[in-house]
Each structure stands twice: as C-alpha cells, then as structure tokens.
Amino acid sequence: MNVDPRWLRVQELCLQSEGLSPEMRHQFLIETEPDGELRGEVEALLEAMDDEAAIRAQAATCTNPVQTLTPEFLGPYRVLKLLGQGGTGTVFAAEKESDGVRVPVAVKLLHTYLAEGESMERFRREQRILASLRHPSITRLLDAGVTAEQRPYLVMEYVEGEPIDQYCNRLQLSPQARIGLIVGLCLAVAAAHRNLVVHLDLKPSNLLVTTDGEVKLLDFGTAKLMGDDGKLTTTLQLTPRYASPEQLRGEHLSTACDVFSMGVVLFELLTGSLPFRGEGSLLAAAERAAPDARPRSLLESLKEDAAQQRNTTPQRLRDYLRGDLEVVMARALASDAQQRYPTMDAFVDDLNRFVEGRPVLARPQTVLYRARKYVARHRGAVSATALLLLALATALGYGLWQQRQAAIAGREAQANAQFLGWMISSSNVMYGGRNDMTVGELVNRTYERLKQPSALSMRSILVLRSSLGLYMFTSGDAVRGLQVATEAMKDARENGDRESQLAVYNTVGLMESISGNCPQAIRVFEEAEQVYRLIARSIPPHQHAAYLTNYSQVAGLCQGDRDRELQLLSQAERYVRQIPDNSRETEVPAPVLKSLFYVGYSMALSRREQFAEARAALAEGIRISGEDNPDTRAARIALLRAEASIAYQQKDIDGAVAALRGASDAMAGFVSPFEYHRIRMMLANRVAESGRPAEATAVIDESLLALAALEDAQLGGPRWMVLVDAAFGEMRVGRCESVFRLVDEVDRVTSGNMPPQWKGNRLAAEALCRQQLGEQSTAIARAAESIQQLNAAGITHSTLISRLVAIRDGNATASSSGN
Amino acid sequence: MDPGITVLLERWGRGDRTALDQVAPLVYPHLRELAAAYLRRERPGHTLQATGLVNEIFLKLIVRREVNFSSRGHFFALSAKLMRMALIDHARGAKAQKRGADAAPVPLHDELPWVNAASDDVLDLDRALDELHDMDADQARMFELRFLMGCTSEETAELVGVSVSTVDRKVRVARAWLYQRLRSRVQRELPENAANAFTHSIDGNNGGSSPTHLEESPTAES
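Output (structure tokens, whole complex):
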C-alpha cells in the first residue's frame, strides 16, 4: 500500500520531536524541515498528541465508568485489598463484622453490568444454586449482591492457598502425589456436576492447595448452569490453554468440557508442559479446535527438568508415565467429547485404577475383546499353513506385545487394536468367506487409511503395512503385496526401531521366499538376523519363535539347508515351550499357535526321515491342542495333515489317505477355499498313488471346477499352489493335457517365480508327462531342471527324485511313470 | 459459499467491495450484537473485546474448512470494517429513537476516552478513518485492530505483519491525528445533518452493502 509521502514526513518529524520541549521542537523543525506549512501540520499534530494524552490520563483516573477502583465497601463487606484481576472480574480481600467477629471473605466484582429485569432474576437464581454447592473442596459462595452501579459481586469463602502447579513444583511432589491432588479436585467438580453446574474455567490458578495441603476449587461464580435446553455457548477466553475444543469452537458445552480442562491441568502437572503445541497463538487454537486434533503423548512432552522437579530420575518418570497413564490422558483429552470420559467420576475411577495398579478402563478393551471373541469364533483362520500363520501372529502379537509392555501411547494402542480388529475381520473373509466385503477391498481400504494421518506410531504403521502386504500377497495380489511390504521394509530400515524392523523383515522375508525370490529372501533374513541378535534379549518368546520358524522355512525352502532348518526349528521349540498356554500376548490362542508350530516341526523332521522325532512332535502338538472343539479344530486339521505327511514319507499311503480324509472332512466349510482345495488335491494325489485313479479324478475335477468359479480374492491363498498340486494329481492319473494346461497357467500367474521346491514339483509334473507321451528331449530337460530345483530346496533323495533321475539319465520307461 | 470464503476474503483484500456482501452476513450480526451490548453497558467495560468473537467465528470457519488460516489478516480487517458499520448503525438507531442523548458517554476504548461510542463521534471517526486510510492504509488498519477489535499491540503486529514497535508508533500518531480531526469538528460545531451526509458517503464506499441490507440478516436483532 502506498503511503502519502507528505503524511509520512509529518509522522516522522512528529515522532522525532515528540520528546522535546515546545521550544526545542520549534527549533528542531525549523532546522530540519524547510516547508513551513508542513511544519505547521507537525506542530498541530504534536499539540494534539499532548492534549490527547492529557485527556487520556485524566480519563484513566476519574472518568472511565468501568474503571475498577478499590471501593471502601461492597455491600456490607469492608474491602481490605485488591487480590487480583481476571478476565471476568476483580477480586478483593474483604471482611464482614458479625457479632463482633470479623469474617474474612473474598469478593469478586464482575466486569459487567446487569441488564434490567430478567437478567437480574437469572443472576439471583444462578447464585442461589451456586450457593447450595456444598463440598469441602469447593470454595463456598456465601453471598451475592449488586452495587449501586448495577455491577454484580460474589462473596466467597476466603482461601489462603497456592495454585496447584506452583505448590507441586515447590514441594517437588511425585507424579503419584500430583495425581492424588487432581483426584481430590475432580471429586469436587463431580459434585458440582451432580448439581448441574459446570465450571468451564478450570485452570491452575483456580485450583488451590491450602497450607494444610487441602485442595480447593475456586471460582464457580462464573460457572454455567446447564439449562433445560442444554444450550450453553461461550466466547473465547484470551488464553484458551485449558479450554476444551468445543469451547474453542463455540459449540455445545457439557461436563465433558471440565473433564478436558482437568486433563490439561493433570498433563501439565505430570510433564511440565501443555498437551498441545504452540499454546498461545490463534493458529494453535485453530488446530486444537479441529475435530481431529490430538494431544501429544506424555513422554514426548516431558520438560527437561521434569524429573528433577518431581524428585525422581528421568528413567523412573518415563516408566511411570508410559502405558496406562498415556491411555488415560488420551481419553481425557480426546477432541471429540463423545470419545472422552463421559463423567468426572469415570475419569477419577480410571486415575484410581492406575494408582492402584489395576487395569484402566480407557484401554480399548471392547475392540480387543471383540477381536478375541472373533478369533474364538473363527478358529478356521488359524488353519493356514503354520508358515503363514506364524507370520500373521507375529504381526498381531507384535501389537499386543507392545500394549502389554505399555511402551506406546494409549491412543496408539487403541489405533493398533482397531487395526488388529480389522485384520482379524479380514481373515474372516479369508477363511470363512461369509463377509460381504472381499479381502482385497478391506485390505486396500485399510492400506489407504494407513496413509492418512493417524494416531499410530511409526512402528505400528510399519508393522501394519507389512502385514497388509502379506494379506494382499495371500489374497491374490502377490506383486502388490510384496511391493507394499518391501516399501514398509525400506522405511523400517530408515525410521523404524529394531522391534519393528524385525517384524517387518520377518514378513517380507517370508513373502520373498514364497514368491521364489530366494536371493532376496536370504538377504532379508540376514538383515533380520543382525537385528535379532541385538534385541534377542528383550523380545518375548513368541517373537523369538516366529522369527526362528520363518527363518527355518527360508533355510529349508531357499537355501536347501535342511540341517539349518531343523536346527532353527529346534531353537524355536525352546521358545515355543516358554509361551504360557494362557498367554495373552498372541492374538491366536497360545495352544493353537503352539500345536501349529509342532505341525511344522514334525513335518520338517519327517522330511529328514526322523520319523520317531516327527511322531513325538506330532504327539506333543496333539497333546497341546487338547480336545476337538471349534477352538482347536484348526490345529487338529493341521495335525492330521502332518500325520498324512509323515505317513506318506514312511510310504504308508493308506495311512496318509486316512489322515487326509479326516482332515478334509473336518475342514469342509471351516477353512478358506485355498486350504480346503489344497487338502483335497493332496488327498487326490495319495488316492491316485494308492491305485484308485477314478476316485482321484473325481476329487480333482470337483476342486478344479470349484476353483474356476472363485476369484483370487475369494480364494484366500495363492492360486498357483493349488494348481501345482492339481497338476501333480493329473499327472498321477495320466491326464497329461490337463497337466500342460495347468503348468502353463502356473507359469503365467507366477512368471516363473516360485520357491525351488514348488518349481521342482511343477517341472516334475511336466517331465513325467512328457516322458509318458514319449517326448524324450523335453522330458529330459524338464527332469534335469526339476532335479536342480529340488536339490536347491534340499531335497536330494526321494521317490520322485529317483524317477526324475531315471528320466534325465535315459533309464526310465514310459510305463513306469504312471503309478 | 460458492467461491469459498477464502477467495472472497482475498478479493475483498484486493479491493473488490462486492465480496463484502457475501462474507459480512457471517460476522456482522454478531458484531452488531456485541456492539449493542457494549453500548448498553452489559458487557465488560474495558473495550469492545471483539477479538474473541472474531477469533471464534474465524475458528469455526477454519474448523469447517471454509477458510484458510492465511486469510486471517483479511478476516480481521473485514471484521474491523464491519465493526465500524455496526457502531454507526447503533449510533443512528439510538439517534432515531431519541435515546442516548442524555445517557452517560461510553468510551470506545479505554485508551480512546474522547470517542463516545454511543454518539455521533463514531460517524466522525468513521469518516476520519477513511481519510487516514487514503494516506496510510496500514496505519488505519492498525488503529482499527487495536481500538475497534480490541487486539493487543502484539496481535495487531502479527495480523498486519509489522513489528510491535511500529504498531505502537503508528497507532500513537494516528490516535493524535484522529483526535485533532474530531476535536476540530466539535469546534466547528457542524449542523446535525452533516453527520448523516457522512454516513451516506460511507454506504457509497461500501458499494452496495448498505447497513440496511445487513440488517435483514435473520440473526440481527431488530
């Protein structure tokens, strides 16, 4: 904007000469400014400045009608001295003589005039109600009146005390003692609430501690009564530090406002700073007024000298604040009044629970409770391969472990629990197929939601992202799933702490190995191992077990190091034994988790032809899983599969068929289509081997027909796995056209990316068929490739390998391949 | 709000007077109520204290994502403008009802005791502020924020984007200059209808947003 240059010059000269005497001014101006007219303007302005200042000075002492002078009397109360001035009034110390006794009181003269008629009546009515508030911690309203100028005043019990924040710091009170004082004050506010009075201006200067250590709540005189219509609005205080968001927004006010303000005071007493950044500015107020505003965590708000002022060490203070107290604060300071403690009593209850070491109710129990119930109802979810399941449990258990450790802020715990809930419901779709929303939709929605700002900590976000990647991976979109998890891994490398790194590496490594990206899988687990070594001492047994089990799969599948696989599994077993059966750290119940581990363990043992050990592990699994009920059904199924596997390894085909029949009967309608059809294909293979091709064909056809009707997202696992199983079955019943179609499809959907064992199986199916059809050169090539892959997977001698070797070396005959 | 309040505020800030019509109904009724309550002496006495009210309205708009935080300066400037209109409205209303003449003076601000907010003084002040605006627009804004909106020097400095000392200096000179203008008017003892002529010119400046139009807002008191 342009400024008039002449005016600028006038101002400049005026300011330069205003401090001078009139003679000096004149002299100065003549010397400085040649323009006589302009000099005249400056002199006139200077004169006006002096006159105006004089009028102002005069007005300030006598004519300002709202100026608060210390009056001699207010009603019958003799004013002794000014105590203080606030936004709503001026407080005086006063006394009243009654029967020769001088009663000290505090009188607050309000900065307002009463309007005529109704307002006066309302004022009186309000004061009567306020006067009826009787609580030892509430400063009593003794009387109220109106001055001759119609200015109302309130007469209150005189309290000699110190604002709570100063008191606490002067005495270096412990956090617990501070909570104790706040609880006392909360009870007083709760008593007021029961009389339908809200305070609306709770702040340290209104919360006193007397010399006797008693708490006193001041200033209910400006409190609001909750009207019949419940409508209460207020204008902004100039320092809205303690005001609730709804007060800032000028919305409906309720007792929840007081909960919030008391929460802010407690937060300040605990940490030394306020729960919201930039306390003073309008911008900060706007941020706080926003519906999605969230307070800082106690830990990140700790002032440097906080521990010293609380007569403790920084470590002890942090230990005290983290966990439940964070949850309680987050609840008290929720931006949405609906999310806050509904009453002061509820707030007090949780504070007491915390102090007494009982579980606080602010913990998002309902979500977790529902999630647990959900798992209990859908145990089928856990009949995924032990491999997938353990990875899943790692992610789920991770969140819970964090909660149990209480190492994260309450709101994060809550957010975690919600996400866990979602993930569990998504497993519903995965294994039950009864939900309207597909896994893909749900996972995508969750993933998008994760990108938005949320209460989740970096570690939670990382773990959840990798878990979502796993869901995408298992529900059909392997490429995107791996991509999502890999991105999470990159972020974890840069920003994650070690626990989240381990969890994310675990998931990504698992996915890479299943995808057949063995070099990557091995690299990831090498990285994971470094992290694991660093934190192995501080993680719970189920995390050890998850890491070691997953690593064993990579060692076996990718590195073909079956000895290492077993070594890792036996290491894992030590930790599995340490997981208490009633552990609440794993989302999947510990017995199920443990018996599933034994499934994988026994299968690995049987692959090494350690049949006695395998049977023992199986027996242990059966023992842990307990009786057959919906909760243990999944473990039962897996155990039957393991039994089938061991029987097969021991060339007991009938035993294997019997076990698989049992498993597949138990599975029907209980597990995901993926799990069910894999078992059916396994059964078909064994039935074919036992010399009943027609029966095997029927099973395969039924499954392939069902598969064709299912979208990837509905399947609940990688389609190619079932297809490879089917190709093997078709090969065994001699339907080679179908085998070629199936392996083509497998190649198409995987782009050749499969773990060596699977690639070996896929190639073996083709090689055996080519051999059958007399396509020697192709058969030999496929057989050689297959052997290579199987060897890479650590499978060096088996019935299948012998047959492949025979083909490769030209010793096989077409007739020998069909059995 | 089709163009969005932020856009309107920016247009208004660039001198587009028609934008005022669309934003004013959000603020004006509240300011008018505040001014009226103050002039009836129902409100705390030190100042009009419009800051809190305007902050509150602004926060509501921010929370509803209807306005950007960056348009806060424009919003306050606009509100100050509206406060001038509200005071004039009240002064004219009081005059029409022939009350207020014998009422005790109500200082516009405790640092402005010579402006009786319940009298024609506000009409003169309005006219003088327009003159000041022509000479130094920022200076006029600072004065408005300090004494009509009740902002502190610090808040004013933040809103205008200058230092606190600049605000204090500029406001001090502006106050003296306005005192000079108002005093000379009193000394010249203009006939009463001259004041009305000034208000008409104010209406003209506002390009179509006459106080009459604003009074039609449903929340404005009659």
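Residues 63-67, 226-238, 364-439, 814-819 of chain A have pLDDT under 50 and may be disordered.
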